[in-house]
Amino acid sequence: QKEVEQDPGPLSVPEGAIVSLNCTYSNSAFQYFMWYRQYSRKGPELLMYTYSSGNKEDGRFTAQVDKSSKYISLFIRDSQPSDSATYLCATTGANSKLTFGKGITLSVRP
Amino acid sequence: DAGITQSPRYKITETGRQVTLMCHQTWSHSYMFWYRQDLGHGLRLIYYSAAADITDKGEVPDGYVVSRSKTENFPLTLESATRSQTSVYFCASSPGLNSGNTIYFGEGSWLTVV
């Protein structure tokens, strides 16, 4: 079992839809959780960062972590065509090495 | 602010040739990483470095060599390139993944081995 599992997609939604992206992880030592966004032919860039369980909101984006079930989620409200990208979840413990999910490609249709 | 730069951005090489991908960061971050990204596998860690002269293997190190004589540079060498090493390579750096820090990626180097 990989340490981080992510739904492979791809995912296509109409503009304005609420998008839910999910990952699960297996290592209970993981305590830092991130979502990266990667546009085509670009490097990943940090979108959201959370520490331990709970929710974090930034504009249209909400990151949610449930450590009891080892579940990581990213919600995008009022999705826009500019949100079309690949989204990668990532997590780490104290060793400064990130473990990534495989990523899911999101397409938002105008 | 240049951040983290990779070169070359695009490279085509022949099987058996030695190839070096360069990575330079201007933030003086302690940690540097090399990932490869392939369809169906996502990002996989090749090597990482916690400081100058300290390197360690990641998930897929075979066929690659790294060095870190200076904090700002972290070159990745494919000693004898194989077709299976055709991939997109991302260099990244971080001050350390605790206390709210994260990892910052370069723009990628697209390598094709023919």
Query: SSE order of chain A in H/E notation?
Result: EEEEEEEEEEE
- So what's the oligomer here? heterodimer
Largest sheet of chain B: 7 strands, mixed
Portion in strands of chain A:
over 45%
Helix content of chain A: under 10%
Report the helical percentage of chain B. Answer: under 10%
Count every helix of chain A, treating DSSP H or I runs of 4 or more residues as helices: 0
Count of helix runs of chain B: 0
Tertiary shape of chain B: globular
Question: How would you sum up this structure, described in words?
Answer:
Chain A is an all-beta fold and 110 residues long. Chain B has 114 residues and is mainly β. The relative contact order of chain B is 0.32. Classes of the chains: A mainly beta (110), B mainly beta (114). At the A-B interface, strand 5 of A face strand 5, strand 9 and strand 10 of B.
Helices and strands in order, then pairings?
The complex is a heterodimer of chains A (110) and B (114).
Chain A: E1 4-6, E2 11-14, E3 19-25, E4 32-38, E5 45-51, E6 54-58, E7 61-66, E8 71-76, E9 85-92, E10 99-100, E11 104-109
Parallel strand pairs in A: 2-11
Antiparallel strand pairs in A: 1-3, 3-8, 4-5, 4-9, 6-7, 7-8, 9-10, 9-11
Chain B: E1 4-7, E2 10-13, E3 19-25, E4 31-38, E5 42-51, E6 54-57, E7 64-66, E8 76-78, E9 87-94, E10 104-105, E11 109-113
Parallel strand pairs in B: 2-11
Antiparallel strand pairs in B: 1-3, 3-8, 4-5, 4-9, 5-6, 7-8, 9-10, 9-11
